[in-house]
Design a protein that fits this description.
The complex is a heterodimer. By secondary structure, chain A is mainly alpha-helical. Chain A has 2 domains: about 20-125, Orthogonal Bundle (Rna Polymerase Sigma Factor, Chain: A), CATH 1.10.1740.10; about 130-220, Arc Repressor Mutant, subunit A (Orthogonal Bundle). Helix content of chain A is about 75%, strand content about 0%. Chain A is built from 9 helices and 1 strand. Chain A has helices at about 1-50, 55-75, 80-95, 105-130, 135-145, 150-165, 170-180, 185-190, 195-215, and one strand spanning about 220. Chain A starts with a helix and ends with a strand. The relative contact order of chain A is 0.07. By secondary structure, chain B is mainly α. Chain B has 2 helices and 1 strand; from the N terminus they run E-H-H. Chain B starts with a strand and ends with a helix. Classes of the chains: A mainly alpha, B mainly alpha. Chains A and B meet through helix 2, helix 3, helix 6, helix 9 and strand 1 of A and strand 1, helix 1 and helix 2 of B. Strand 1 (about 220) of chain A pairs parallel with strand 1 (about 1-5) of chain B, so a sheet runs across the interface.
Amino acid sequence: MPVHLSQFALVCSQPLNETVNAVVARLFSLRQDADSNATHTAEFEDIRQCKNGDSDAYRRLIERHQTSVSKLLWRFTRDHTEHEELVQQTFVEAWMSLPGFRGDAPLAHWLARIATRVGYNYWRHLGRQKTTPLPDEILEGLAHVDAESFDVQHAAELVHRLLAALPENDRLVLTMRYLEQCSITDTAYRLGWTQTRVKVQTHRAVAKLKQLAADRNIELDL
Amino acid sequence: MKTVKMNNLFAVARRDTAPVVDVADSVLALLAERRPSVSVALNRSLFWMSMASSAIAACIVLAAFVTKQQNSDAVNEILNMVAWVAQ
């Protein structure tokens, strides 16, 4: 009989546990929403103060977003000094453009768009100085090493140098689609292109990359 | 022909972490440096505007003087006639 009672208690407790879990999950989600709303409110307040020329508010915005901007711009250069300069330039340009920020998109998206433009202009500036032919050792390295076993930094360096062999537009669209994992819509927003152009440019860039590898008897599965 | 799975390579490359940067101070310093340059540019444009308006004003004064010289006789005649009628 005690066994039956304990089984009954167990059966009864299961829906109760599920209810409690659901309530806890709901409370947690409400708390997250509240935190998110508080952050957005603080951000909008900072933006408003920045538009009135408050540099302390801008400092808070920089501190809040510099990590994500830094991460994005690390796709554009592997040089520490230049990377820091690009991050700086992004925030300087953002300050100049801030009066025109209407808040249609989150500030992070707007900053990402500016950072992408800064990075692209940096590539164009480099492209005017010199072209970057694809070194043979890069593709030979690709051919001999299993991609899954790559060291993270080595892989990032390899991808960076591989994409550097492409024209800026191709490199940009592949960086957005495959490294930043942006959707077609997001890529179009960031680059200020139409979605059709993003699709066509991606297709062409992949074809060029495959051709570069094929010239050295390597097939890229992408 | 060797096949390389680029998606795997991209996936590994995505895990790469960017160096930590703190640009708040340098950005604010750069902006502080730029602010005076904005006012200098503004002053410069105001200077050129004032020079242009002064040049136009000088031309108008010159034209008025020449016109007055050319028409002074006629004006004097009219003034005399007005004075005579007023008497």
